[in-house]
Task: structure prediction
Amino acid sequence: MRRFTWFNTISLTLGFAFLYIPILILVIYSFNASKLVTVWAGFSTQWYGELLRNEAFLDAAWVTLKVAVISSTIATVLGTMAAFVLVRSGRFFGRTLFSGMIYAPLVMPEVITGLSLLLLFIAIGLERGVFTIVLAHATFSMCYVSVVVSSRMASFDESLEEAAYDLGCTGWDAFKSVTLPIIAPAVISGWLLAFTLSLDDLVIASFTSGPSSTTLPIKIYSSVRLGVSPEINALSTIIIGLVTVGVLVASVTSKRAIALQRQQERNAAG
Result:
């Protein structure tokens, strides 16, 4: 085992400090009583109250949450189906083109993706709003789900499904009772990744959103251009808290799913 040297300790300390000290400062100044975000004037929670009374931010947050949940769910379903085709279907005509189209958004600049979707929506006469943002986010996040699920499917033991077929299960029953519980950690991870990408997206949403469908990143960006307000610090702190809770819940869920998978594998082996 390699020793944990002073160089490694210092490198990790500086790396984590670079990542998390700005976040810590943001959280601290969200409780600042002063309107000036760079001047500490005492502890106060007034900006959280102001945030809850700010209808513009609340409407943008609701739009963002709605878009993220719907688009990540669509992306998870389509990405999982694409992963099954890529892993289980073997070689078929057009496989290279199909896989290239699935993985293209991974390397495509967001500006190009947003502009192309904007031109598409204009060409077909589709009014921009929540629906177009959902379509756009599901389009570019589906490939991330496909990559995550494909990596799990590549190491999947197909003999478990065969055992289910031997016991009289149909294709759907085998998928629901055997395959899905085993790949559940990858599916959950893909959904969370798609949700995070949608929640954080600014560029593509700015191309595909309409006047009545402003997302939270767009609203924050527009507000920051006029100056950082303490309400933005409070909003960012709430988002950090929600993300932290989500990560903890996902970690616990993944551990339970992995434990269930190992138990099923032991049962099948026995």
Q: What stands out?
A: The mean pLDDT is 82. Residues 46-269 form a domain with the MetI-like fold fold (CATH 1.10.3720.10). The two ends are 35 Å apart (CA to CA).
